[in-house]
Specification:
This protein is α/β, with parallel strands linked by helices. It has helices at 4-18, 43-51, 55-65, 89-101, 134-149, 165-177, 200-214, 218-232, 236-259, 274-286, 324-338, 353-366, 401-419, 424-444, 456-459, 467-488, 502-511, 514-523, 527-547, 556-580; strands at residues 29-30, 39-41, 72-78, 82-87, 115-119, 153-157, 290-293, 296-299, 313-316, 343-349, 374-380, 383-384, 452-453. A four-stranded antiparallel β-sheet has the order 1-2-4-3.
């Protein structure tokens, strides 16, 4: 189904043709002066040069051909050559009614679906999730859902940090604390214990202690680097201990991601790339791509078009150890072998842009990916506190994600209780739902690439451009539909009727933008575009709600038309927030 803009452009182009001008000048846009008109066409000014004619004369000629058109009303040619108009109520109602009956509301999904891998999350195991993991999870989940809604086959992979120096640090510190463990005895030949020699809370203490000590003690750091190397070489005791770390860490990670309504199809990590590293390195050497530089193995990825120096991509360090670039490249080999995707999207802090540029260029140059495989990087900005600095606890430390979510859940529960009496169990469950919307919408309503202020007071407000405001709007619509259904029966029979005033027409116009907005959000990997649309629809509905007595309307046909309008409004809003990764309760 064509978008409203496409439909209007077709008809405007026909008018240009009828007036004797090329139809290519008939492009229609939403008006930048809604007080004057709903839509406009500026093609007359572009046509003036070709036809050596004043733009206003061309605009007048075209306007004359729109006079009897059942689509356009209030057509006017305005100096120096604008064509301003409104869309007829009948055409608008017909378009929206057709939209309501179409799958995905008439959205033109992808003609040839792609197989897409989205790499997001990226936490290190053995460490609790903190606020720094929030954006990758929230943005990645939304991008995944948008890509799926457009008809693609999408695989989300968490890409765990489970093979780097942090593992060596944990083992070095554990050796200090529990030197008698069999994992550290090179002569041990028996079966290792099934139960891990630590709890998750112990791991959470071990890693920061080890990290801090390694910064002050060079010998300790070297020992940790050696332990990392032994893990990567598959030393039996180290691998068994590594498996314990994974078994203890993963349930905690899954619990926290589930709380964010974030899910992954694959729970792979850097370790899964290990079997592919040696073969990949050999292929790079044989192909003449990899060479030694100061003992390290590198691939030159610079291009003649570069405006600044791009350093070579390091594949192996001088001691033979792998790096993030190594495992990211080997992960691409793994994904090509096991999935063979058409496109890969990486979502990470924008400060990693150089890293991913190196990985992508190296992968394309050395044949790690097929030449027609798309590689995209969506780098996100920093989540800052009200002071404009990276978000911290009141004590100045990095806040655990679990603690942040608890704080917002509690704040939301207090606000719900302040508004009306509610049973505690129901109130707390509703608070979790609304708090999730507050966090996700608060993040996603900002352009992903930009830094933003994480303001709990603002995000949990029921007024303004916030998640709770959007949910409250949906709950209000649900309530009206429920009351109508109880009193009058089914809400399915009615179709969209012509608008009777400016408020219901304005709501209709907003809803017709659905397909255009979702397509744009997909093409630009921009969830904030859906947030902006959702907010505009919510505002349009609330203006309509406050100016019309829907449930007490005496004209039954008019009332039925309004109910049909509310039904598609609710469905479109719920579809959009599902793409954003949250949902609305039945009551608030």
């Amino acid at each position: 189904m064509k978008t409203m803009i496409e439909e209007l452009t077709i008809r405007m182009s026909e008018a240009f043709d009828k007036a004797g001008y090329d139809g290519k000048y008939g492009k229609v846009t939403v008006s930048n002066r809604p007080d004057l008109c709903e839509f406009q066409c500026n093609g007359a000014m572009a046509a003036a040069k070709e036809y050596k004619k004043a733009p206003i004369m061309i605009a007048n000629d075209v306007a004359a051909k729109l006079g009897d058109e059942q689509v356009f009303t209030d057509v006017s040619a305005v100096a120096p050559g604008f064509l301003n108009f409104r869309v007829s109520k009948g055409f608008l109602a017909g378009y929206l009614d057709k939209m309501a009956g179409e799958e995905k509301y008439g959205l033109d999904t992808i003609g040839t679906p792609q197989k897409i891998v989205i790499d997001y999350g990226g936490p290190n195991v053995a460490k609790p999730l903190h606020v720094g993991h929030l954006r990758s999870a929230i943005i990645g989940e939304a991008v995944k859902r948008i890509c799926r809604y457009m008809g693609n086959e999408v695989i989300g992979d968490i890409h765990l940090g489970d093979w780097g120096l942090q593992m060596g640090l944990i083992m070095t510190e554990l050796r200090r604390r529990k030197p008698d463990l069999p994992y550290f005895d090179p002569g041990f030949k028996g079966e290792y214990p099934e139960e891990p020699p630590f709890t998750m809370s112990e791991l959470e203490d071990i890693y920061p202690a080890a990290s801090a000590r390694s910064k002050e003690d060079e010998e300790y750091k070297n020992e940790a680097m050696n332990d990392t190397f032994l893990i990567q070489q598959g030393e039996r005791g180290h691998v068994a201990l590594w498996q314990h770390i994974m078994n203890v860490s993963l349930p905690d990670l899954k619990k926290n991601y589930e709380r964010l309504n974030v899910s992954f199809d694959l729970w792979k990590g850097e370790s899964d790339a290990r079997p592919y590293i040696n073969g990949m390195v050999e292929d790079m050497k044989k192909g003449g791509y990899a060479y030694e530089s100061e003992g390290a193995l590198v691939v030159d990825i610079s291009k003649e078009t570069d405006t600044k120096e791009v350093p070579p991509c390091m594949i192996l360090k001088s001691d033979g150890a792998s790096l993030y670039t190594t495992t990211d490249l080997a992960t691409l080999v793994d994904r090509r072998t096991s999935i063979n995707p058409d496109k890969l999207i990486y979502i990470a802090d924008k400060r990693q842009e150089m890293h991913f540029m190196q990985v992508f260029r190296c992968a394309e140059k050395t044949g790690v990916v097929d030449k027609d495989t798309e590689l995209d990087f969506l780098g996100f900005g920093t989540m800052n506190g009200k002071d404009g600095k990276p978000f911290k606890t009141r004590e100045g430390g990095v806040m655990r994600l679990e603690a942040l979510l608890d704080e917002i859940d509690e704040e939301m529960y207090k606000k719900i209780c302040d508004n009306h009496e509610v049973e505690e169990a129901e109130g707390r469950e509703t608070a979790k739902t609304v708090a999730l919307a507050a966090v996700k919408y608060g993040d996603l309503s900002n352009q992903a690439t930009k830094d933003y202020i994480f303001d709990i007071d603002k995000f949990t407000s029921f007024e303004g451009n916030t998640g709770p405001y959007i949910l409250y709007t949906i709950v209000r619509i649900k309530s009206i539909l429920g009351k109508y259904s109880e009193a009058k029966g089914s809400i399915e029979a009615a179709g969209i009727r012509e608008a009777v005033n400016e408020t219901d027409k304005a709501l209709m116009l907003e809803l017709t933008r659905f397909g255009q907005v979702v397509s744009g959000a997909y093409e630009e990997l921009a969830p904030h575009k859906i947030c902006s649309f959702v907010y505009d629809v919510a505002n349009a509905f609330n203006r309509f709600y406050h100016e019309n007595r829907i449930l007490t309307e005496e004209d039954k046909e008019r009332q039925a038309g309004w109910i049909a309008l509310l039904k598609i409004t609710k469905e479109v809003l719920e579809t959009c927030i599902d793409m954003l990764g949250f949902y609305a309760p039945d009551r608030m």
